Amino acid sequence: MLRSLLIAFSMYSRIPVPRAEWKEEDMKYVLAFFPLVGLVITAAEYIWLSLGKKTGLSAVFMGAVSVALPELISGGIHLDGFIDTSDALASYRTKEERLRILKDPHVGAFAVIRVVTLYILFFGAVYEILMHGSAAGISYVFCFVFVLSRVMSAASAIFFRPAGNKGTLEAFGKAADRRPVIVMLAAEYIASAAVMIYIQPIAGVLVLVASAAVMAAYRFISERAFGGVTGDTSGWFLCVNECVLSLCLAMAAHLL
Fold it and tell me: What is 31-71 written as a DSSP string?
């Protein structure tokens, strides 16, 4: 389990950890430990927002750093998947051609357009949360979005059909010891959901409903466009999910 933890952090973050060999038996619990990277991001967001409020930093600066923190900690691996998947989805080609585009190192115009749009919306949502949601505790609900998104991304690798491109995500899914991994992911989901609902019940429930809707849409899109999920589509889902949940919290900030 310790080696699985090290593999999870070395794969999905820039946090320095001791190196571990990628043997199949050492990858049994990688997906279960993946959300712990989100917990590190949550802690960093919480510390940053608390520090910003105490020191009187502007919402613009606080929002900019909050948007950058996930990529600084994760190393941009999920954003890379978002970019590749955006290119493939914009091609309107066959499943085989789309899978080929996922492996293409070049970046197309549509990927640039969509990643810029993603960050404009993400920053706007975080700014609204900071401006109008702090009193209701919504800014702290936002911090736990990064755990929830990774729990659901890991769950999709377990429960959704793989595209069969023999990528890293498929390797983690096949190597997973399903029963304990599912139990661990369920516990992480319940814990993150409980904390968000405890902080702000309406906002917490809204996030859970929205994340379930995004996950259902992800399954439909990935199976129709690629025949299943891949590591790139998983990164696309995580980025879209975090953005959508932030937008929902921004709207909740005005209502509450």
Answer: HHHHHHHHHHHHHHHHHHHHHHHHHT--HHHHHHHHHHHHH
Angle at CA of residue 54, ends 51 and 57, nearest 5° = 75
Residue 93, φ and ψ in degrees, nearest 5: -110, -170
User: What are the pLDDT digits (tens) for 114-166?
Assistant: 999 999 999 999 999 999 877 678 999 999 999 999 999 999 999 999 887 67
Q: Quick: pLDDT tens for 179-207.
A: 999 999 999 999 999 999 999 999 999 99
Residues 6+ apart with CB under 8 A from 47: none
Token output for 196: 């968000």
Distance from chain centroid for Cα 142? 13
Tell me how far apart the alpha carbons of residues 165 and 199 are, in angstroms, rounded to a whole number. Answer: 41
Q: Hey, what are 243's tokens?
A: 């953005």
Within 10 Å of residue 71's Cβ, how many Cβ atoms? 16
* Measured distance CA(38)–CA(88) in Å, rounded: 27
Which residues lie below 8 Å from residue 68, measured CB to CB, with a gap of 6+? none
Of the candidates 63, 49, 214, the one whose C-alpha atom is nearest the C-alpha of residue 140 is 49
Q: Match 């499943």 to its residue by tokens.
A: 95
**Tokens 């439909």, residue located:** 220
Q: Higher confidence at residue 95 or residue 69?
A: 69
Rounded CA gap, 235 and 195, in Å? 25
**At 6, which helix (H) or strand (E)?**
helix 2-12
